[in-house]
Amino acid sequence: MESMFEDDISILTQEALGPSEVWLDAPGDPSLGGDMCSASHFALITAYGDIKERLGGLERENATLRRRLKVYEIKYPLINDFGEEHSFSLYEIKDGSLLEVEKVSLQQRLNQFQHELQKNKEQEEQLGEMIQAYEKLCVEKSDLETELGEMRALVETHLRQICGLEQQLRQQQGLQDAAFSSLSPPPAPAPPCADLDLHYLALRGGSSLSHGWPGPTPSMSELERRRLEEALEAAQGEARGAQLREEQLQAECERLQEELKQLQETRAQDLASNQSERDMAWVKRVGDDQVNLALAYTELTEELGRLRELSSLQGRILRTLLQEQARSGGEMGQGGEARPDRGEGSYGYHPASWGHPLLLFLCLVLFHSHW
């Protein structure tokens, strides 16, 4: 890339002069003193070389900073209020202090990311524990449902057995009543309550009737009836136990469903809170990055303006220096034609010749005061 200051510095070079022009204070000019010409020429060349070296180093530093700025521009594009990405100029310069500040900021962001990563790991562990508990509850629920189905099937089986036993008992009682009615004489008129009591005693297998009325031997039928009654009572007891077990299993299933619902609500709340925290942190990071880039852009613009003002000031000083040198050389040439002898003016002690060292000193002071 061509130098920004080439137009301002080229006025000191011999190539910038015309082919017929020469240095006014060259050693071959007989109108100036040898010592004064050598000193001023050496000081001017030294200042020019120093300025040229400094400008070359500054250009190299600017090129390095531009490359770094281009990298940062690619990584972190600045978005203005209108949603358009702003790209920095190639002539913008970044100071070393800004790089240090950005380094500290990046280190802080790295620490923050590490802290968030650790927090996310802990949350993932908690979430894994919750998932394991949820899976365990699901397995227990499926086991309870299977056991409940088995209990229901067992209850249905017992109910069918009870119905069958009751039907057999009714058949046995019907046969017994038929046999008893066929063998007994016609009953005397009695109140209805006596018939009900007699029927009740007959159903219960009352032994008192066997003493007053002759009947068949009830040995086998009585044993069968008792066995059926015992089986019925046992089946009813098993049915009551199965119903109680079913109620317990239903209560346990409802409790597990409530726990599962609470776990699902807790998990949803945790996920919502974590998502909101991550969104807020991301918005804050983006805002901080945009503010930092805007500040860096402002400082780079100000530094570029100062450098341009300094370069223009140096160019004006050097032009003024050459003009003063040309005027002093012209006056000395006229004085040499009028007075051929070498007097005080011929050695450069004319008051106009003092402008050259003063301007040179002013140029060096301004240049060193800036850096």
Provide tags for this entry.
371 residues, TBK1 binding protein 1, disordered N terminus, 7 helices, mainly alpha, rod-shaped, coiled coil, phosphoprotein
Percentage of residues in strands = under 5%
Q: What is the approximate shape?
A: rod-shaped
Give the spatial strand order of the biggest sheet: 1-2
How far the N terminus sits from the C terminus, by CA atoms, comes to 23 Å
Mean pLDDT: 70
- Helical percentage: over 70%
Q: Report the uncertain regions.
A: 1-30, 79-93, 187-218, 337-356
Multimer state: single chain
Order of H and E elements: HHEEHHHHH
Radius of gyration over all CA atoms, rounded:
58 Å
Count of individual helical segments: 7
The largest pleated sheet is described as:
2 strands, antiparallel
Query: What would you call the structural class?
Result: mainly alpha
The count of DSSP E runs of length 2 or more, i.e. the number of strands, is 2
